[in-house]
Amino acid sequence: MGYLLLLLATLAWSFVGVLVKTASTMVDSSIISFARFFFGVIFLGIYLLIKDRKIRLRTAFLWIWIGAAGKAVNYIFENIALSIGFSYGNILVQPVQTVVLLFTARLLLKEEISARGWVASALCVLGVLIIGWNGLPLGELLDGNGLTTLLYMLAGIGAAVHVWSQRVLVTSMDAGSMNFSVFLWSSLITALPIPVQSEGFTGPITFGAWGALIVLGIITGLSFLSLAEAIKRVPFAIVAIVGNCSVFFTILWSYLFFHEPITEYIISGTLVFVAGFLILNLKLPSRAAKKESSLAT
């Protein structure tokens, strides 16, 4: 069951780019950001009512609001970038998030960054730069890819803030109540600019676009719970490997559904930052463990 939940969460995240791109044929990025939270809260609330027969909405924790703001920033900039760029572009969010988390842990918690952490950070940054560059001349880079890369970097910073809030809040509340509260307030934050900023429906109203918005909400509401349950049942090494495979699925779907150009730079950059993830997350045997193993044999 744990492996199935992990696979479902991984596949769900890999479809985000395709779903946002599909929804953008009907509504603008502001509506998409709001809808991801709105439908997510609905499905998460239904899940909590079935599971616990009640919903706990938390407002008194400062980190609830910090997490809501961070996740709102994450979705707002990610959806803008996906609407104007390729559907695989959001693979940049995760490496940016990883680097931000490492350096904020160093600055705020005074945690030492190990040699492995520095190598992982360097690979993540290098992978982002390769993908952002994509072999383009400087003029084209500044006109197009540079803007979307900047937007994904801002989205990654917002995602890192949300992760920090989760780390703080998980010690004082269950994951369901935490995510419901954060996503509800995130929906309100993303709803505020809609009356003055949003263009509303920008294209034909289709079942496919509505379906994409609803599925995005399901992913927002339930994928984090699926991952949390999977972590309890599956070795962390498997979680790290399978979870990071979502970026490869994202690239595959973008090619299959939209025939977007996947260059050698995109593949190379992805391999580089995934290597950084694996170096950071997979624990190598210590020297002591290796010595004990050799003595045992």
TrEMBL record:
Keyword annotations for this protein? Answer: Membrane, Transmembrane, Transmembrane helix
What are the subcellular locations of this protein? Answer: Endomembrane system
The organism's superkingdom is given as: Bacteria
Q: Cite a single Pfam family from the UniProt record.
A: EamA
Where do the TM regions start and end?
A: 30-50, 62-85, 91-109, 116-135, 147-165, 177-195, 207-227, 234-256, 262-282
* Gene3D superfamilies noted in UniProt: 1.10.3730.20
Q: Which residues form the EamA domain?
A: 1-132, 150-281
Q: What is the predominant subcellular site recorded for this chain? A: membrane
Q: Which GO terms describe its cellular component?
A: membrane
Q: What is the protein's membrane topology class?
A: Multi-pass membrane protein
Family, according to the entry, reads as follows: Belongs to the EamA transporter family.
**Any idea what this protein is called?**
EamA/RhaT family transporter
